[in-house]
Amino acid sequence: MALHSIRKARGCWSFIRALHKGSAAAPAPQVSEHTQLSWILSCMVRLPRLQHLHQWKAKTTKQKHDGTGGLLTYPVLQAADILLYKSTHVPVGEDQVQHMELVQDLAEGFNKKYGEFFPVPKSILTSMKKVKSLRDPSAKMSKSDPDKLATVRITDSPEEIVQKFRKAVTDFTSEVTYDPAGRAGVSNMVAVHAAVTGLSVEEVVRRSAGMDTAHYKLAVADAVIEKFAPIKREIEKLKLDKDHLEKVLQIGSAKAKELAYPVCQEVKKLVGFL
């Protein structure tokens, strides 16, 4: 829970910085044990293993093979985030399954060398394993996508959400069906609709019978807007209370530190640093 608290608080940190508007903003609380364990774990993984991770290959291709060392070793930092709190189950998207395999391998490798210490965490996948890009349904939806119409953000206005879904890639067939292999764009709309309404894909398709895809995209947009509305209201409320956000950051950091410090110290003893 401490890790969840600090991540939730850090998610609001951009709002705090915006409210402060300048360098006077206090630095976000840090838990240095994350980077300490990350370095130790990085000594246990070979370079080719990291270079073969699909996200590294995809992102460096987009960056014209100009990826940084930080990007290459980011999955090891993810592993440290998980193992430092001795997590047993981790909710992830489908695109993170390969990174979770690295986490599991690192836990097993550490245990084999130093004795049973880390639980080997399992991935938890929801029915919506991956949200696809609205502009390229063969790729995942990503906040770093340079095409602003490809990704829906919780903070988007209703007008922006409608525009993005109106421009979403589908095909020239009007009927709403679910066929990921043959109709990736429309199937992406159906999957998003099912995810935000809690309905099954089959039920979504049944209820959309007789609707053409142009009108259906607007129906999906409305469902997304409705789902995001209470979250957006909470964000707006939090933005008005920067003192509360800073307090959450401090409390979350302290709780995370309380859990992380003894684990990291024990790791250091096992590997011979202490």
UniProtKB/TrEMBL annotation:
Gene3D superfamilies: HUPs, Tyrosyl-Transfer RNA Synthetase. InterPro entries: aa-tRNA-synth_Ic, Rossmann-like_a/b/a_fold, Trp-tRNA-ligase, Trp-tRNA_synthetase. GO terms for biological process: mitochondrial tryptophanyl-tRNA aminoacylation. Pfam families: tRNA-synt_1b. GO terms for molecular function: ATP binding; tryptophan-tRNA ligase activity. It is found in: Mitochondrion. It is an enzyme of class 6 (ligase). GO terms for cellular component: mitochondrial matrix. NCBIfam families: trpS. Belongs to the class-I aminoacyl-tRNA synthetase family. This is tryptophan--tRNA ligase. It comes from Piliocolobus tephrosceles. The gene is WARS2.
